[in-house]
Design brief:
The complex is a heterodimer of chains A (108) and B (118). With 108 residues, chain A is mainly β. Chain A is built from no helices and 10 strands. Chain A is globular, with a radius of gyration of 13 Å. Chain A starts with a strand and ends with a strand. Classes of the chains: A mainly beta (108), B mainly beta (118).
């Protein structure tokens, strides 16, 4: 099955840009979705289909996907952005869902 | 606005069956895929599988032999059974919805913690 990998942790200062990546073999050919999860809470969709932003998600959140890496970018990071972020892809060859291992974003 | 709510025992003995139900309110089961996703304490999300409203189901290979999923349209619920369980199945279990033709999850339940212990 398709494997996606994420850096376990990213740390940024308030106001800076956070870059969270999701790697996989030719992941650029797949649709990647991103979720934000705070402790004990259900995940919240923040980016869908690589770069779509659901209503209610700030424009500071953006996504891209090319080659072997998908990227979630958070501009002008705020303390409230501190959370775990997960990428998710759909493996069309097996028709199964796959999550990355998650990245903990720490706002210094 | 659809709402999903998981329910089931919070404690299951090893080698027994974990049974969870997700009740859907504010919407029909029709035309959607209904999924189960779990998260062991301190770890990441794991996709378990999903079931179409028609009853067709798929699950991740590592759990496939132990997973059964079903839909009950009459009471707007879908369910997960995992058997037999071990301590490694201790996790926060989420139910979620995805639209047919889509591959992301916009709607989630709040999650229910299941501990496997004697």
């Amino acid at each position: 099955s398709f494997v996606v990998t994420q850096t376990p942790s990213v740390s940024v200062a308030p106001g800076d840009t956070a870059t969270i990546t999701c790697g996989g073999n030719n992941i650029g050919s797949k649709n990647v979705h991103w979720y934000q999860q705070e402790p004990g809470q259900a995940p919240v969709l923040v980016i869908y289909y690589d770069s779509g932003r659901p209503s209610g998600i700030p424009e500071r959140f953006s996504g891209s996907n090319s080659g072997n890496t998908a990227t979630l970018t958070i501009n002008r990071v705020e303390a409230g952005d501190e959370a775990d972020y997960y990428c998710q892809v759909w493996d069309s060859s097996t028709d199964l869902g796959v999550f990355g291992g998650g990245t903990k974003l720490t706002v210094l | 606005q659809v709402q999903l709510q998981e329910s089931g025992p919070g404690l299951v003995r090893p080698s027994e069956t974990l049974s969870l139900t997700c009740t859907v309110s504010g919407g029909s089961l029709r035309s959607y895929y209904w999924s189960w996703i779990r998260q062991p304490p301190g770890k990441g999300l794991e996709w378990i599988g999903d079931v179409h409203y028609t009853g067709s189901a798929k699950s991740t290979p590592s759990l496939k032999s132990r997973v059964t999923m079903s839909v009950d349209m009459s009471v707007n619920q879908f369910s997960l059974k995992l058997s037999p369980v071990t301590a490694a199945d201790t996790a926060l279990y989420f139910c979620a919805r995805r639209s047919g033709g889509e591959s992301y999850y916009r709607d989630w339940g709040q999650g229910t913690l299941v501990i496997v212990s004697a």
